[in-house]
């Protein structure tokens, strides 16, 4: 299996991207096609003594993080993310992985690959750590303004991903809301609740923010605005907590001794909440596998993202999403009365 990697996208590109790709190739996770400026990539590759199953497709154009995605892609038809996505469309690669501009990757996927089946709104599905292992959250930032039917689509796509890729039988689907009661929320969540309840899903109802980390919900559904804020809040909180702990254990000798005793447990905990362990987030709802990575991804994150891409291809994710029925957007949404 060949995976196309946008070597020019990300805060630490191309160095960390190349390192991660080489590690994946060396471990035979997949054969790698690095897409980017060959004159820049070869000096990064040569000291690593790359294996034979890694190649370069040359292109000099790059979409910067601060560029308007649609406009940039119209002017830069040979941008690295566009070329990498075309490799998937042409069948030369099974998936694309990038840590570059999320907007540019989404735009490239829609322009080149197109939507999957009857899906209206592709969504970013990301794993979040919980007390019962990783669970799926979507949308994590692809759609900031959503209608109730879009949330239903997210739930349907998340259900397929959880079942096929995560191996969860009858995934429990929850709607993120400000209360568990059916009559809580805004027009968007009230309408989505009724649609989800009527759908052929294992819908467990509304869940609150504090319920996420119990791990009792396998697929957590929300719009991209809420999902992205929640995701970054969680990342920031985890970093702040470990910084606070590190500061406290340095204050007294007793604290230092205690910290030494629990250090293995702390390292294991840090690994559980480290985004690099989860690699990347698939863009669900496009006709191909497109894995979106954190902008600050290091080599480990890229290698793990390639693992995610391989898993999505092996489990036939795109085929499963293509079989989803369309959502009827013409019906009036019946909202429950206020409590």
From TrEMBL:
It comes from Neomoorella humiferrea. Belongs to the PlsX family. Gene3D superfamilies: Isopropylmalate Dehydrogenase. Homodimer. Probably interacts with PlsY. Pathway: Lipid metabolism; phospholipid metabolism. One of its GO terms (biological process) is fatty acid biosynthetic process. InterPro entries: FA_synthesis (IPR003664), Phospholipid_synth_PlsX-like (IPR012281). This is Phosphate acyltransferase. It comes from the Bacteria. The keyword Lipid metabolism applies. The gene is plsX.
């Amino acid at each position: 299996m060949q995976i196309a990697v946008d070597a020019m996208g990300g805060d630490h590109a191309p160095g960390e991207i190349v390192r991660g790709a080489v590690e994946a190739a060396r471990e035979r996770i997949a054969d790698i096609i690095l897409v980017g400026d060959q004159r820049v990539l070869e000096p990064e590759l040569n000291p690593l003594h790359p294996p034979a199953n890694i190649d370069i497709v040359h292109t000099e154009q790059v979409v910067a993080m601060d560029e308007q995605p649609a406009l940039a892609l119209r002017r830069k038809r040979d941008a690295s993310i566009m070329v990498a996505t075309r490799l998937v469309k042409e069948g030369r690669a099974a998936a694309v992985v990038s840590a570059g501009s999320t907007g540019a990757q989404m735009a490239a996927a829609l322009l080149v690959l197109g939507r999957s089946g009857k899906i209206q709104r592709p969504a970013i599905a990301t794993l979040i750590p919980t007390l019962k292992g990783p669970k799926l959250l979507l949308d994590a930032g692809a759609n900031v303004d959503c209608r109730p039917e879009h949330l239903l689509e997210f739930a349907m796509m998340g259900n397929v991903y959880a079942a096929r890729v995560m191996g969860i039988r009858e995934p429990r689907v929850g709607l993120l809301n400000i209360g568990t009661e059916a009559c809580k929320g805004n027009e968007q969540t009230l309408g989505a609740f009724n649609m989800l309840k009527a759908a052929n899903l294992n819908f467990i109802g509304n869940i609150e923010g504090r319920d996420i980390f119990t791990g009792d919900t396998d697929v957590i559904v929300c719009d991209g605005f809420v999902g992205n804020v929640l995701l970054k809040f969680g990342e920031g909180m985890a970093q702040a907590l470990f910084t606070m702990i590190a500061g406290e254990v340095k204050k007294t000798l007793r604290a230092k001794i205690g910290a030494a005793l629990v250090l293995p447990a702390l390292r294991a905990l840090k690994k559980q909440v480290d985004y690099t362990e989860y690699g990347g987030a698939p863009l669900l709802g496009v006709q191909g596998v497109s894995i979106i990575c954190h902008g600050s991804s290091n080599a480990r994150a890229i290698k793990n993202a390639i693992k995610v891409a391989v898993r999505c291809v092996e489990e036939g994710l795109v085929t499963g999403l293509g079989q989803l029925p369309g959502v009827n957007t013409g019906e009036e949404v019946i909202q429950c009365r206020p409590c």
